[in-house]
Amino acid sequence: MRKENLLTGDRPTGKLHIGHYIGSLKNRVQLQDQYNNFIMIADQQALTDNARNPEKIKKNLTEVALDYLSVGIDPSKVNIFVQSQIPELNELTMHYLNIVTVSRLKRNLTVKNEIKEKNFSESLPTGFLIYPVSQAADITAFKANVVPVGEDQIPMIEQTNEIVRSFNSIYKRDVLIETNALLPEKGLGRLPGIDGKAKMSKSLNNAIYLSDSPDTIQRKVMSMYTDPNHIRVEDPGNVENNTVFTYLEAFCLDKVKLKEMKEHYRRGGLGDVKVKKYLNDVLQAELETIRNKRNYYEKNLDYVFEVLKKGSLNARSVATETLFGVREAIGINYFN
């Protein structure tokens, strides 16, 4: 039975942190035997709000590739490719823009939220506004039946499928296929930053990165936000909205011990320092293999770029086939 195509990716705006790891990277490793996988490093999308600092994107592209390989993404099973190296995506975006209105783009909830988050107003870059269309080009170019996303990205999937239906209807050919969102399992949501804020990010300086040294991880863990009312060891503590316990819920494999620690903390007698030390041990064990692999690949960057080159060539051959079908449907393959 033929495998379905699956597309995932990241914007190279910084190194990947443990929120990325627990939220998507571990899942990608598990899925790489089940689908024809395309993993995109979305450098062009990152340039929509970093156009004046392309060196940042170039540097972080390498960092993201290193993180992919270090967590166990296997280039013999997965096409890891660079968005800007697939020029067919740009032409697909242009064709799709002709069937999408500005008002529809502005109604996209994901775009609305990110515009507000980034404090764009009249300075909104056009490239940022249209990135749902660019994302639709990415998804359809690789005939992706499945796209793993969080709940906040559902509007992007909906808009992609609107574009697919519109295009097929206008040109009366079933050239493009609709895609399905693969949502994460219920339970663990997005990891908060170590300061307890809802978002973990480089700009807020509240993230633990996959590439962090053991000393850096320990320092960050010991500074983590807990229960502000748990002042003395004997005080009863709250494990809900307690960042240390949120991280333990995500990473601790010994669920029996974790349950006992939660009960002890709730009734009092368990100090924050002891809980943080245990979390540090858990994270160090989880990240040691990743860190060692990353160190190896950092010394073999020629291999890393060969992986990206090969993956991009494979991805481009698929995108070229899709674009040919789109051009045929529109009627602009004049000389073929």
Describe what you observe in this structure.
Its EC number is 6.1.1.2. Belongs to the class-I aminoacyl-tRNA synthetase family. InterPro entries: aa-tRNA-synth_I_CS, aa-tRNA-synth_Ic, Rossmann-like_a/b/a_fold, Trp-tRNA-ligase, Trp-tRNA_synthetase. One of its GO terms (molecular function) is ATP binding. This protein has two domains: 5-190 and 300-330, Rossmann fold (3-Layer(aba) Sandwich), CATH 3.40.50; 214-295, Tyrosyl-Transfer RNA Synthetase. The mean pLDDT is 92. With 336 residues, the chain is mainly α. The longest helix is centred in the C-terminal third of the chain and has 30 residues, at 301-330. The strands form two sheets. Strands 1-2-3 form a three-stranded parallel sheet. Helix 8 crosses helix 9 and helix 10 runs antiparallel to helix 13 (272-298). The chain has helices spanning 18-31, 43-47, 54-71, 88-97, 102-107, 109-117, 126-129, 131-141, 154-171, 214-222, 243-251, 255-267, 272-298, 301-330; strands at 5-10, 36-41, 78-82, 146-148, 180-182. Helix 9 (154-171) links the parallel strand 4 (146-148) and strand 5 (180-182). 54% of the residues lie in helices and 7% in strands.
Which key terms come to mind for this protein?
3-stranded parallel sheet, Tyrosyl-Transfer RNA Synthetase, Rossmann fold, single chain, aa-tRNA-synth_I_CS, 14 helices, 7% strand, mainly alpha, 336 residues, 2 domains, tryptophan-tRNA ligase activity, elongated
CATH topology of the largest domain: Rossmann fold
Strand percent estimate: 5-15%
* Number of alpha- plus pi-helical segments: 14
Can you give the mean pLDDT? 92
In total, the number of strands is 5
Backbone CA Rg: 22 Å
Using the alpha-carbon principal axes, give the shape. Answer: elongated
CATH architecture of the largest domain: 3-Layer(aba) Sandwich
Strand arrangement in the largest pleated sheet:
1-2-3
Q: Write the CATH homologous superfamily of the largest domain.
A: HUPs
Measured between the Cα atoms of the first and last residue, the distance is 33 Å
Helix-strand makeup class: mainly alpha
Number of structurally distinct domains: 2
Biggest beta-sheet profile: 3 strands, parallel
CATH class of the largest domain: Alpha Beta
Relative helix content:
40-55%
Catalogue the unreliable spans. none
Task: Give the H and E element order.
Answer: EHEHHEHHHHHEHEHHHHH
